[in-house]
Predict the 3D structure of the following.
Amino acid sequence: MSKQYNVGLVGVGAVGTEMIKVLKERNFPCGKVQVFASRERDEQILGETYHVLKADENCFKGLDIVLFAGKTDVAIQLKDACVKAGAKMIDNSRAFRQDPEVPLVVPQVNAEDLDWNKGVIANPNCTTAIMLEAVAPLHKAKGLKRLVAATYQAASGAGAPGLDELEQQIHDYAAGRPLTVKAFQHQLMYNLIPHIDKFDETNWYTLEELKMRNEARKMLHLPELKLSCTCVRVPIARAHSESLNLEFENDITPDEAREILRGAKGVKVVDDPLNGGYPMPLDATAKYDVLAGRIRQDISRDDKKGLEMFVSGDQLLRGAALNAVEIAEQLIERKLV
């Protein structure tokens, strides 16, 4: 019988629920799964009753791996206790992503960074994770020099409140009722909002946009990578999409890019535009792979070092829950837990 690992989960929101689902789907070798939240209670999660314990500094004894799907301040508060208890902490918040002592990992991109972990591993921002699934294989083959992105981010990227608000606005609009705006800065239904997270008043990029740059630099080991993006909230329930303009050190053709991506784990090439084959959030929803398509040469350049590409990926799954579980699987495979 293979070894079993005791797994903890802090947070039972949209991402936490998805993590439990992925653990089951992938037959993760769990000895037990203990769920923690802000207060003790019984809770139905995916049709099963869990006795949820209060998350505190004394709750991690006997656990091998703890998946954090809660708030940033909770992760910061409980980090030392988790590590002291001997558990590997895999954190989905932004708390430790830029900490030089903490590896920031997507296993298909930089699994080797797990080897220097000191008990804490950070999950990247979901938008960064989706982008790098498709970009990293091309970078490894051709050397990424510059990236310009525009994102189309689903309501559920703001968690359950964001998804609930979009659905409620649709129902209220159909019923002729006034629309309520709480989770977002403006009405999302029938609208686009080019504003995700706070603005940095020194350069007027949002923190979401700066996260994508800083996280990509760290994970690709390219501290000087030129990357600019505009992040936009769109009235889509689930799955983010991104338009990517890529510049490489070496020549690359669309056919070469498609061939590289067909061989990349975690990516599915969907690139048959004449027959309506291209990445769409509807098709990426609840799928493990990032969909990549609309691959074409950048016609604004006089050389063959530029590509255009469109990607879609499920941010709750591919960008968060699945990535966290795959990190746990890699820790086991690399005998780090």
